[in-house]
Amino acid sequence: MENFLPDECDIVMEGGVTSGVVYPTFVARLAKKFTLRSIGGASVGAIAAIAAAAAQYKRNRVRQAGTGSDDGFYKIALLPRRLRESVGNTTRLLSLFQPSAAMAPHFRVIVAGLNAGIKPKVVARIALALLWNFPLGALLGAALWMLGYLVSSGLLGGHWRSGVAYWLASGLWFGLSMLASALGFAALQFVLGAWRGLRHNRCGICSGLRTRPGNPPALTEWLHALVQDIAGLPADQPLTFGHLRQSTPPIELALMSTGLSELRAHRLPHASADLVFRASELAHLFPPDIVEWMKQASQHTHHRQQTLDLLQGLNDQGADYYFMPDADALPVVVAARMSLSFPVLLQAVPLYRIRTLPVAGSKVELLRVWFSDGGLTSNFPIHFFDAILPTRPTFGVILRDDLHEDPHQDPSASPGPVLRVTLPSNNNQGATPAYVAVDDAAQLPSLARFATAILQTIRTWRDEALTRTPGYRDRVVLIRHKKSEGGLNLNMDRKAIGLMSRSGSLAARAIIGRFLDPVAAENGWLNHRWVRMRSTAAVLQDTLAPLADAWHDTRLAPSYAAMWQAQADAALPAYRLSRESRVAGDILWQGILAIPEQIRHADLSAHAPRPQPELVISPKQT
Description:
By secondary structure, this protein is α/β, with parallel strands linked by helices. It is about 45% helix and about 10% strand.
């Protein structure tokens, strides 16, 4: 058999906040064997995606020039070590998340409860943090309680009882009840402050920029500098989607964001020409070099005069509206920041949509659209680069926090039943669906778990369906970690970062071992192609048979055939066909319609992989 080993691949990475520390070593090891062609992700997976794209861009430039060996991937491999570095009294990882002044006390309370271990310890640390960071509420609660105690105890006209037991009981009750009152009012101050603080800080604690001049770089600044360094570009020439597309070979980068105001997912880069930004708003979220680039790139977009007049009129009144750059001119760090706006933790990104209202004169106005975490609509967009018949593998990484083994155990040294990294080695593995325990210890549904399951199902049902379908699940590697690792554990210790980093390397090793196996019978890529082709044949047969029935349905007037062939005044006015398109389309339809009749004797769904995928037409995410 001729060489069947792939040398190119696509990768898609799931979101998970700090769980993303698994990705640098995964990408760096995978890049030793593959050229990365299409790269995608959501939330923190978007950070890994743009870093990987920058490294592949640098590699392509070096190879094309024929000089040097710096391809950027070794810098990605060093990222976990850099995130473990000490910055002041914390790690660089935690230093990336810098709260706004109004939300700093709230952030300290949240961080106090992370990595605390058992629940009583978590509660105790949060309680102390509340008292320390919200002293006015605590003092008010204690004072009000004292006033009530003095009135109810009779000290303003009553008398004391005697007895040691009475004094001990009273002292205990006194202390605990005063503490409870202080905590209650401190919590009330926390909630009221959070309500106001989030409203005035774009519904997020951290903007992504440093909050004081002497602070280390915050998340967005650090990410921008990292991408420019990896790609080998100066800070004032940001890496754009156009850089990637024009590379040799071209690199496709796709990220997921969620337009909350429009109730839908958005695939970035955008394909629309009706988005607008305000420079003064983006200045709170992006480094100055990025904002200036966006303003300059905006001048090269093309819009109709009515829209130009609208923006000019607003800007004449002191506003600073600009058209979003075309997709090729959009910096990748802007798309990544739009994707990783984790609710409450990171501030949402406001843009504006140009809308033509159905009123007299077709009035045009701007409607504000808030972009938040891509994981809200698809945390694992494995569908980004799939083709009906794939020509290169698309590898996916998913993360689960259900590991219960020793948190200090080296993942590479664990041969036991609980593994940090798993990849299906045959077509029977990986079919078991995810499971979320809703019952509590009393075998009754926990309301908190029930609500969590509802939210998780809404967010991930599509991802879960894809990751257990034959021809999809076999190229998805699962990395498991403890609840004290990854996720929202912003203050993860150095040892945990190291463990998760090694998990990423093991995940890449598993993929390489499976998909580059020189034995054809054991090779994952050949198996993947066969399963996909087998499933696709069954799906196409099931899809084309109803299509032929609809084409020949005598109850429809006019028939589909008559509608396609209609010309001049007989044709419908919308989306008219040219003569060439009508002829070419007729050839296409006739070829498709002949297939069901030719294969009516066979059932290609018999013994096909289960669950069987389906072929549907759905709106394209833009």
